[in-house]
Amino acid sequence: MNYHILTLFPEMVESGLNTSIIGRAVAKGILSIDAINIRDYTKEKHGHVDDTPYGGGAGMVMQAAPVCDAYEALCDRLGKRPRVLYMTPQGSVFNQTIAQELAREEELVFLCGHYEGIDERALERIVTDSLSIGDYVLTGGELPAMVMIDCISRLVPGVLGSDLSAEIESFHDNLLEYPQYTRPEIYEGMRVPEVLLSGHHKNIEEWRRKQSIRRTWERRPDLLERANLSGKERIYLEELKNTCNSPDSMVSYNSCDEKRCSSDAGNACKNIK
Ligand code: ADE
Fold first, then answer.
1. Ligand 1 pocket, 132 CB below 6 A?
2. Residue 250: CB partners within 8 Å, gap ≥ 6?
3. Residues 13 and 5 sit within 8 Å (Cβ to Cβ)
4. Considering the entire predicted model, what is its pTM?
């Protein structure tokens, strides 16, 4: 996977993506990160890449020419025209399904705007996808690009130590991840659930799956509509719904509303085994 980031702040992207798992994958040659400075493509003698908006208004707008020229120079270099993902709060909200789809590409271009945005004509000419990381406004597209690159990269074969861990995790199958424990067996009087010490793999798997369903129902019930549950698991979910009060929003969950089910392992319901 080769990422090309069109930005006015290449050092921000380079330093942010040079560490930990992504940095290691770059060092191994599984990923490459090419931060392209849009400013290098301005033809203005003072190096300006922005100007005031036609029609008036606050702030500055990034000009079309340096953005398009930076992309065209990249296309000439690659001999193809890769997808251009524009980072904008007006885009579709990025999620795991979009990440899986993007992870199949060989080249991806991330276009990061600053100031009041980019001249619409550049966007019309080169952008293939507009993506947001959530309903809030940041000062630029670099952080969203880094978030997406991190998420997509861990789905690229060879980036994680074990490809299995990318699969069995929150949002795989639209279920949240089950709780994890490590040594010691007892911490401050809190015990690791017995089943995890049993060595009985089938029981452990069943327990984890139930924990995932329970967590998803408590924390993100919206995801369950798209989850792939077996007949037995559907019955379990119905039992959960009948036994616990339904958490009606993230707000009630986050503020530890007493409507939330009480816990025997992290956040499990008392009377469901
Ligand atoms: N640029 C500014 N805010 C953004 C957001 N929420 N997502 C993507 N790009 C952005």
1. yes
2. 219, 220
3. yes
4. 0.87
